[in-house]
Design brief:
Elements: H1 2-17, H2 28-40, E1 42-43, E2 46-47, H3 70-75, H4 79-97, H5 120-147, H6 162-184, H7 188-213, H8 219-242, H9 247-271, H10 277-295, H11 307-341
Antiparallel strand pairs: 1-2
Helix pairs in contact: 1-9, 1-10, 2-4, 5-6, 5-11, 6-7, 7-8, 7-9, 9-10, 10-11
Length: about 350
C-alpha cells in the first residue's frame, strides 16, 4: 500500500509539473551549450571523454565493432547525456550568480551526480525501502511457515491470504528495485521498467485490497475479482511498453486504482474490530501527510535532496508499519480460525 501513495503522488506531480517541465532546456543558451559541447567535446574546463563518439554511441566513420561498450551505454555516459549534464550545471552556476532560482531541465530538477548515481539520495533511499520490503516479506514468510501452526493434513497455512501476500511482497521488491535503478540512471529502458513494475504492483494491491477487506476466501470468487483487473493491467502495461508511453493515460489509471484501494482500506479500518486497524490508519494518514512533501516541490538542497527524496525517507517507516500490519493480521486470523476448529 505504501507504494500506492507514490504512484498517486507522482501522477499529481506529472499534472502540475508538465507546465514548466522544460523551462531550463528551453533556454537558448542551454541549447547552444549542448551544440558546442558535442562539436568541441568540452564545457568550460570540463572535457567530455565520450564526445569522440556520436550521440548514438558509434565512432565517426567506424565499423560496428567500434560501438561503445555495453557498460558505457548502461551508464548513459555518451556525448549527449554528458553534455546535457555539464551544460545544466554551468547554467545553474550562472543563474545562481545572478541570484536566480534553479529551474527544471527535461522535467527534472538539476541534481548533482555522485559516481553513476543520477539522483543519489533518492536512489539510496529507494534501495533502503527495498531492504525494508525484503525484511518485511521474509519475516512474514518465517511467521507463516515456521512459527504459526499449519493445517495437519495439507500442511498449508491457516491464514487464507498467505499466497497473496507472497505475490505482493515479490511485486513490491521488484518495483522498488527498478525504482532504485531508475533514480540511478533514468533513460527509456529503466523508465519503462520502473513504470511497468509500479503499475503491476498497484494493480495487484487493488486486487488484494478488495479480497482482504471483503474477506473473499472462495477461489472461484477470487478469480472473478482478479481476472478482469489482471487482463486490464496486462493490456495497459503492453500498451505502455510496445505502443506508446502515454503519460496522460497512465496518470488516470494510477490515480484511479490508487485512490480506490486507499478508500477500501480506510473504510475497512473504520468499521472493523481488527486489533491492528490503527496501523492501517497510521499508513493512510502518514501517506496523506507525505503528499504535502511532493506537492511542495522545491529544488534539491545542495543539489542532492529535494521533496521527492524526503518522501522516500518517510516511505521507509510506512513500509515497515505496513508489513507489521500484515504480520499481525496473519497471527490474528490464524488464532481466530484455530479457536473455531477446536
Amino acid at each position: 500500500m505504501d507504494r500506492c501513495w507514490l504512484l498517486v503522488i507522482v501522477s499529481i506531480g506529472w499534472i502540475f509539473g508538465a507546465i514548466d517541465a522544460s523551462e531550463g532546456d528551453a533556454d537558448p543558451l542551454y541549447r547552444e551549450c549542448i551544440e558546442q559541447c558535442e562539436k568541441k567535446g568540452s564545457v568550460g574546463a570540463s572535457s567530455i571523454q565520450h564526445c569522440q563518439f556520436l550521440s548514438d554511441g558509434v565512432l565517426v566513420d567506424s565499423p560496428w565493432y567500434m560501438q561503445e561498450p555495453l557498460y558505457v551505454q548502461w551508464k548513459q555516459c555518451n556525448c549527449r547525456s554528458d553534455c546535457q549534464y555539464f551544460c545544466m550545471m554551468q547554467q545553474e552556476k550562472e543563474r545562481e550568480a545572478l541570484g536566480l532560482k534553479p529551474v527544471k531541465y527535461h522535467g527534472k530538477w538539476p541534481f548533482k551526480r555522485s559516481s553513476v548515481l543520477q539522483e543519489p539520495v533518492s536512489a539510496i533511499l529507494s534501495a533502503l525501502t527495498l531492504v525494508v520490503q525484503f525484511n518485511g516479506w521474509l519475516s512474514f514468510f518465517l511467521l507463516a511457515y515456521y512459527k504459526l501452526p499449519l493445517r495437519p493434513h495439507s500442511g498449508k497455512t491457516y491464514y487464507e491470504f498467505t499466497c497473496l501476500w507472497h505475490i505482493y511482497g515479490l511485486l513490491s521488491m521488484n518495483a522498488w528495485f527498478w525504482g532504485a535503478i531508475f533514480h540511478t540512471r533514468g533513460f527509456d529502458l529503466t523508465e519503462k521498467l520502473d513504470y511497468s513494475s509500479s503499475v503491476a504492483l498497484l494493480g495487484f494491491s487493488l486486487i488484494l485490497a478488495v479480497l482482504r477487506t471483503f474477506n473473499v476466501k472462495n477461489e472461484a470468487s477470487r478469480v472473478m475479482v482478479a481476472a478482469p483487473l489482471l487482463a486490464f493491467l496486462t493490456t495497459h502495461i503492453l500498451y505502455l511498453n510496445f505502443y506508446e508511453l502515454d503519460y496522460g493515460l497512465n496518470v488516470k489509471v494510477c490515480i484511479t486504482m490508487g485512490i480506490a484501494q486507499v478508500l477500501f482500506w480506510a473504510v475497512w479500518a473504520g468499521i472493523t474490530h481488527h486489533p491492528s486497524r490503527f496501523k492501517i490508519w497510521a499508513v493512510v494518514v502518514g501517506g496523506a501527510m507525505a503528499i504535502l512533501l511532493e506537492l511542495y516541490d522545491f529544488p534539491p538542497y545542495k543539489g542532492y535532496v529535494d521533496s521527492h527524496a524526503l518522501w522516500h525517507a518517510t516511505n521507509i517507516p510506512l513500509a515497515y508499519l505496513w508489513w507489521s500490519f500484515v504480520y499481525e493480521d496473519a497471527k490474528f486470523r490464524t488464532s481466530t480460525i484455530t479457536k473455531k476448529s477446536r
